[in-house]
């Protein structure tokens, strides 16, 4: 991987540790609204795709209302969310080196705007591509191609940092290099049966691939 002009980040599970809040909120939503009990493991697939897509996979009919309840519960669990260690320092270093920084996330606009944790670092990013109905969700490349276009760079001059197979698919389908964010409590390598990408166990390791250390 040659040095990069631009680093694109996923949000949940990459910049911010939101797994516990998101999955627990979904588990309670399904129990409270539909009296269906899921384990956290059964709902992990919901990390990395738009909320509507996750609910469709659960065969929910009243998606808009369910999404509203789920979102309200996520806010109640917001005290459990936090930036991963080294993230803010990493962004500061990359910015000081003149690297362009962007976000490509499955969140909707309002989910980005209302996140108090993300607000602490949002000023580092020049481009933020959220999900909307005009774009196909990850693993389709629509969002990452939109970011590349807004930065006016070639795809091989960017790298995408993410934590799910959906993120990898998005990068691969957009001809963008991918780095697996393998930090946090879960070893995410086990979710990947295949793939040609680099793995970083700590955010600072990204520097080795982007600016050569």
Index terms:
213 residues, alpha/beta, 6-stranded parallel beta sheet, 10 helices, globular
Question: If you compute it from the alpha carbons, what radius of gyration comes out, rounded to the nearest whole angstrom?
Answer: 17 Å
Give the overall pLDDT as a whole number: 93
Biggest beta sheet attributes: 6 strands, parallel
Which geometry do the CA atoms define?
Answer: globular
Structural class: alpha/beta
Widest sheet, order of strands:
5-4-1-6-7-8
Unreliable residue runs = none
The helix/strand order is EEHHHHEHEHHEHEHEEH
Helix content: 25-40%
Strand content range: 5-15%
Question: What is the helix tally?
Answer: 10
Find the count of extended strands (DSSP E, 2+ residues). Answer: 8
Described by its quaternary structure, the protein is: single chain
Distance between the termini: 13 Å
What can you tell me about this protein's structure?
The chain has helices spanning about 20-35, 40-45, 50-55, 65-75, 85-95, 110-115, 115-120, 140-150, 165-175, 205-210, and strands at about 5-10, 15, 80-85, 100-105, 125-130, 160, 175-180, 200. It starts with 5 loop residues before the first strand and ends with a helix. It has a six-stranded parallel β-sheet with strand order 5-4-1-6-7-8, with helices on both faces. Helix 1 crosses helix 4 and helix 3 (about 50-55) packs across helix 4. It is α/β, with parallel strands linked by helices and about 210 residues long.
Layout: helices, strands, pairs:
Layout lengths: L5 E4 L6 E2 L1 H16 L5 H4 L7 H7 L5 H14 L5 E2 L3 H10 L3 E5 L4 H5 L2 H4 L7 E3 L12 H10 L6 E5 L2 H9 L3 E5 L16 E3 L5 H5 L3
Parallel strand pairs: 1-4, 1-6, 4-5, 6-7, 7-8
Antiparallel strand pairs: 2-3
Helix pairs in contact: 1-4, 3-4
